[in-house]
Write a structure and sequence with these properties.
The protein has 195 residues and is mainly α. It contains 5 helices and no strands. The radius of gyration is 40 Å and the shape is elongated. The two termini are 60 Å apart. The relative contact order is 0.11.
């Protein structure tokens, strides 16, 4: 899970013409056979594929109208005028959802450049996918290394100073350390050998 702005979701996957036609027929048949009871399914399919706010409004509105109409038909008596209004709403809902679904799905197929559909769209329904920047090479990355020192400004020109001879190395100190290390090594060998 990421927080904040991230990459834009990719376009819906392109379907073959046969798959798209079969899905359209199935969703329209479900709407018609269920007499509008499942008319929210094509709207849900559109909302998921197109990812637009207005499609989600259509889906929730269609679902609410369908449920309210069938509840009114089931609760009120047959001779009530509200039952007639609810029945006419359900009857009108089937072709309205069917036409909206076909028009929007065909427009989506054209915009996405699906096979068999010429691309008439002048605008794309989604922004283009986010292209991440190429990774920067980090061959010598070491998190424990101190940050590099700030660049020093070039030295100001000075008067010529004769070079001084190098200082003599501290040989006596090195020899003393060597001798102490040798003594410690001998002492450790004796202790290991005695055990």
């Amino acid at each position: 899970m990421t927080n904040g702005p991230g990459p834009v979701p990719p376009y819906p996957p392109a379907q073959s013409k046969a798959t798209a036609t079969t899905l359209r027929a199935v969703f329209l048949a479900i709407t018609a056979i269920s007499c509008g009871f499942l008319s929210c399914l094509p709207l849900l399919h559109l909302a998921v594929r197109r990812r637009r706010g207005m499609d989600w409004v259509f889906f929730w509105t269609g679902t609410a109208v369908s449920i309210a109409s069938f509840a009114t038909i089931g609760i009120l008596p047959e001779d009530s005028p509200w039952t007639d209004v609810a029945l006419l709403t359900v009857i009108a809902l089937v072709p309205l959802v069917g036409v909206h679904y076909l028009v929007a799905d065909l427009a989506l197929a054209r915009a996405a450049g699906a096979p068999g559909y010429p691309s008439y769209a002048t605008t794309v329904p989604y922004p283009p996918p986010h292209q991440p920047a190429p990774p920067h090479p980090q061959a010598d990355y070491n998190p424990y290394r101190a940050s590099p020192p700030a660049p020093t400004p070039p030295p100001a020109p000075q008067a010529h100073v004769p070079p001084q001879p190098p200082a003599p190395p501290h040989q006596p100190r090195i020899n003393q350390v060597r001798a102490e290390l040798d003594e410690l090594s001998d002492l450790l060998r004796k202790q290991e050998g005695g055990q």
